[in-house]
């Protein structure tokens, strides 16, 4: 249980947070994503982590996924566009999951991300009364260390770190990236094309500054290596012929 306090008008109100299991028959709202780009951005973030072997069985990485807490006896569920939890409790990583209750089922989320639409500013809501806004929920109730807000149309990324119980805006480094120490990765913005979408994307870079590739990029890299090898083989064959040697008769 987490108990904090907030000022409401001239009164000091108590905020009591508990972590309770959802009833088995509880029906989560099935809110559709706001545009087709959001699931692509979320999927790309997971894909590159998976390809480099970052993801472990005890981790939780999900998109448009319900995070739950009980606040003053009232259930609150918020669904960030992307969430990363480093460690679930033993046995909690098995099976399909519809929601996640921090502390009850595993660690607190380390990162939550929101991808803004053209019209939605709800991610910035600090409303403390029931139901609380997303900002208030992540900052005061869940106390998530990293909160990233990304505008896909413009490429603007705002990253907030929890400092003394409040989110503080962090400026990126010279490369425009943010270091996430618990993941040992940088997060930043990249512009290009993937699948049917051309625009700004969120990407990961390792500690050495190497971008974590997508599958399509790995395939292209392999194609380029094969082409370079073919060209080297052709040049070698031409040289051997110039020396009066038939490369087809060489027994390797």
From TrEMBL:
Keyword flag Cell membrane: no
Entry keyword set: Coiled coil, Endonuclease, Hydrolase, Nuclease
Classification via Pfam families: Uma2
Coiled-coil segments: 216-243
GO molecular function: endonuclease activity
Domain (Putative restriction endonuclease) ranges: 78-183
Matches recorded under PANTHER family: SLR1095 PROTEIN, SLR1612 PROTEIN
UniProt-recorded name of the protein: Uma2 family endonuclease
Lineage, opening ranks: Bacteria, Bacillati, Cyanobacteriota, Cyanophyceae, Oscillatoriophycideae
